[in-house]
Each structure stands twice: as C-alpha cells, then as structure tokens.
Amino acid sequence: MGSFAGSTLPPDDIVVSALRAGDEAMFAALLDTWSRGMLRVARTYVSTDDSAEEVVQDTWLAVIGAIDGFEGRSSVKTWVYRILVNTAKKRSVRESRTLPWSALELDAGPTVEPSRFHGTDAALPGSWKESPAVWPTPESQALAAEVRGLIGEALAGLPPRQRIVITLRDVEGCTSEEVCEILEISAANQRVLLHRARAVVRGRLEDYFESVKQAE
Q1: What are φ and ψ of residue 183, in 5° steps?
Q2: 3-state DSSP call for residue 139?
Q3: H or E stretch including 175?
Q4: 3-state secondary structure at position 196
Q5: Separation between Cα atoms, residue 111 and residue 173, nearest integer Å
Q6: φ and ψ at 117, to 5 degrees?
Q7: C-alpha separations of 48 from 42, 43, 53 in Å
Q8: Are 92 and 45 in contact (CB under 8 A)?
Q9: Which of 134, 163, 210, 211 is deepest in the core (most CB within 10 A)?
C-alpha cells in the first residue's frame, strides 16, 4: 500500500485492515497524523516531556498488540486516544503526581460570575446573556507568541480534569461525544469541565487584552 504521509487518512476499515496486515506505511501515516496531539494529551497527565514521549510509545505498542481485537464500536482515533489516556493515567499514578481520576475536583466553584449566563428557564440555559468582547487580533508575531504563551500558562494552571477536557476539545478538535468516550465521563460532566476551563482561559485573555488596550 502506498504512503499516506501528508494526506487525509482513509476510512477506519481500511486503516484497521492495513494495521492488521502489518502495513508500515499506514502505521507511519498514523504516527505522522496523531503523535503530536497524543504528546500534548499525555503531557497533561505526566510531569515531563520524556514521560509523555514514553506514554505515546507505550500506547502505539499497545495499539499494535490489540488491533486484532478492535471491534469498531468507536472510531480508531477514539480507541487509540482511550488507550493513550489509560496509559498516561497509570504512568501518572506511578509518578505520584495526581490523585485517582475519581477523586479529582469536579465540584470547584464557578470561574465566571453566574449572572453573566441565562438561567434554566431561558431558551438556551447556561448561554452568555451578553457575548464577551471580541479579543483583538494580534498584529505582530511577538504579540501572537505572547498570547500563545499566555494560553499555555492558563492551561497548565487548570485542575487536571479541566485541562484534559479543554485540551481534547479545543486543541485536538475532538467532539463532545469523543471526549466522553475517551475519558469515560458523562456528557454533563464534560460540559461542566469544559465550561470552567474555557472560562478560566477566557478570563486570562480578557485581562491581558484589556491591559494591552489600556497601554495603547
């Protein structure tokens, strides 16, 4: 089979068949397409870049070892990421860096003033009453880099569950359904965690851009 590097991956059934057949080109294509994102997700659990790389390597070994048993009840990507998260969580426990997943904070207080959102009797409960101000578009590479750094700092400071949810949704582009399946959490928990994480990041950026505006 030919190389898929740099192109869209074929449908899952073709991917699975190729992996089962030991197709090196398909495996290389998956590595090229997913490994960078997998490193970002792994890094939300473990304490060093080296540990994250080892988690990703262990994940790919597990994928190859388990591909014959893949039943297609989820997408290949979701299945791979679920293996990744489970591998990263085990590594994290060994590092004694986090509490067990079930013990991590879900009931932290709201990060945005509740009065800024519609109540339960509104057509769209929980939506913004008034959309936050549009952020300025960074006009220079230096400003853009500073914003990226600020976002990175905001993500790093989030509680673990919020950080992994926003990383999967807003950085890796996973759907809410995929995140629920990867992390084995309910849709309600996913919404709460994502909302709180986005609120923190938005708050940091709102403060930053307000300071930039005042400095002009």
Answers
A1: -95, -10
A2: coil
A3: none
A4: helix
A5: 23
A6: -120, 155
A7: 10, 7, 9
A8: yes
A9: 163
- Using DSSP's 3-state secondary structure scheme, residue 148 falls into helix
> What are residue 50's DSSP bridge partners?
none
Q: DSSP label at 131?
A: P
With b for 16 or more beta-carbon neighbours within 10 A and e for fewer, the 114-148 pattern comes to eeebeeeeeeeeeeeeeeeeeeeeeeeeeeeeebe
Tell the residue number behind the tokens 């997913």, with chain if given. 34
- At 153-194, the pLDDT tens digits run 888 889 989 999 999 998 888 999 999 999 999 999 999 999
CB 192 within 8 Å of CB 176: no
Q: Which residue has the tokens 């994102």?
A: 37
Sign of CA dihedral 204, 205, 209, 210: negative
Query: DSSP assignment of 148-211, as one string?
Result: HHHHHHHHHTS-HHHHHHHIIIIIS---HHHHHHHHT--HHHHHHHHHHHHHHHHHHHHHHHHH
Reported confidence tier of residue 11, pLDDT bands at 50, 70, 90: very high
- The answer to whether 70 and 15 are in contact (CB under 8 A) is no
Which residue has tokens 């398909």? 26
114 Cβ contact partners less than 8 Å away, ≥ 6 residues apart: none
